[in-house]
Amino acid sequence: MKLLFGVLLLSLCVVFGTMIALYLRVRRQLQASETALRRALQDLEHERESTKV
Predict the structure, then answer these.
(1) Is 1 helix (H, G, I), strand (E, B) or coil?
(2) Between the CA of residue 4 and those of 7, 14, 15, 25, what are the distances in Å?
(3) Residues 51, 53: Cα–Cα separation, whole Å
(4) What is the 3-class SS of 26-46, one letter each residue?
(5) Which branch of life, at top level (predicted)?
(6) What's the pLDDT tens digit per position in 1-53?
(7) Smaller CB count within 10 Å for the chain: N or C?
(8) Is the dihedral of CA 35, 41, 45, 50 positive or negative?
């Protein structure tokens, strides 16, 4: 019974650890995408301002 409980606890830890790792990776990718989009938007705004007459 103790062995079964230990295996169950270990598997739960692995599942939660994997979920946390995936969440952190996705969040980091979203932040990188947001930064790239902001930079592209700023470049477009500067280009639009420089082409105004």
Answers:
(1) coil
(2) 5, 15, 16, 32
(3) 6
(4) HHHHHHHHHHHHHHHHHHHHH
(5) Bacteria
(6) 999 999 999 999 999 999 999 999 999 999 999 999 999 999 999 999 998 76
(7) C
(8) positive
What pLDDT, on a 0 to 100 scale, did the predictor assign at position 52? 77
- Provide the 3-class DSSP secondary structure of residue 18: helix
The first and second tokens of residue 19, run together, are 């979920």
- Structural tokens at position 14: 């692995």
Which residue's structure tokens are 């599942």? 15
Tokens of 12: 């739960």
What is d(CA 33, CA 25) in angstroms, rounded to the nearest whole number?
A: 12
State pTM to two decimals: 0.66
Instruction: Give the angle subtended at the CA of 29 by the CAs of 38 and 35, to the nearest 5°.
Output: 15
